[in-house]
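Researcher: Can you fold this with S-adenosylmethionine in place?
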Amino acid sequence: MTPGARLQAAAEILDRIAAGAAAEQALLGWSRTSRFAGSKDRAAVRDHVFDALRRWRSSAAVGGAETGRARILGLLRQAGTDPDTLFDGAGHAPAPLTEAERDAGAMPDGAAALDLPDWLLPVLETSLGPRLPEVAEALRHRAPVFLRVNTMLGRREAAQAALALDGIETSPHPLADTALEVTSGARRVAQSRAYAEGLVELQDAASQAVCAALPLTPGARVLDYCAGGGGKALAMAARLRGVIEAHDADPRRMSDLPARADRAGARLRVVSAPMGPYDLVLCDVPCSGSGAWRRSPEGKWRLTPENFAQTLKTQAQILDEAADLLAPSGVLAYVTCSVLTPENADQVAAFQTRHPGWQVEDTRQFLPSDGADGFYYAVMRRGDLG
Ligand SMILES: C[S@@+](CC[C@H](N)C(=O)[O-])C[C@H]1O[C@@H](n2cnc3c(N)ncnc32)[C@H](O)[C@@H]1O
């Protein structure tokens, strides 16, 4: 496919997304009917689609309409690329621009300029204060690819050398001792030997920093209450060198976990009904995902006041359930990939009001503008053991 044909394909997929299709479904539908497209074409089309999703509002404003074609036009204008070099109608490229399209388009302002939903702007302003513009800007760009070195199987330098043999260049990332940022060859990671043998896992650097901050002591009984795909459960297992119990309200989300644990040499037990007492319960709760909207930009537009309110209720309920599973001196670790105060510090404060005596021992907010995803954690323990 020519570069122009890739843009045309992306524009059509964006129209399907605008009509209500999920991005992955729309991409899959296109893939199935486009057998002529090679792997590089598919990757390029996907990148264009996700670039437009990250800049859904500003690309439409600059492109002059709420269509896939206009959004692609807007992205080109934002990048300083002359659209006439690609909108030329040749070889399935977009048709040349009309006079009306040339005249259309304006710089957005307010929430549209930041590529944020209007309703969420006040929440973000309160949560981030003067850091809002830099966070919003970070969320408009592609996320770096990070790997976690599985220190049960090798050191960071050994992992870098193994990855280099497969043409993947990395550099250590300061957020965590286990973190590598992929600087070239990211698309080869899943086929690399280091990945197949469990020496590295895909995991965001801030997510690794969160796992590194948890007070895991040898012999501790640990539960990952919202284990999902198990990224944090595996990272905890590597640190603890003991068994991690993994639970999720939706057990299908953990279906790959036993195989991933085997590959990593981790000891992990999936439990459907956790039985306390535990020494540490990790609650990596469902959240807005606002800290990771670079990776999942659809989340930015699908979040509504209604489902946000429901998510806040679920988070509180999970914290209450987890507290009941802990030993008297046990640690309750609350984690979100969010930058929004209502689901971070406010949620923890509300828990403390419902459960007097719990104290926050350690807490930190990571922001996407610091390099990795936005994450929040609070490590809590009961203070009134007497
Ligand atoms: C942020 S994801 C977990 C990601 C995972 N810990 C990781 O590191 O890859 C949140 C998970 O919480 C689960 N969940 C939602 N409601 C829950 C509940 N009431 N109890 C336990 N898990 C729940 C979801 O199914 C989802 O897998």
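Model: Folded with S-adenosylmethionine in place. The two ends are 71 Å apart (CA to CA).
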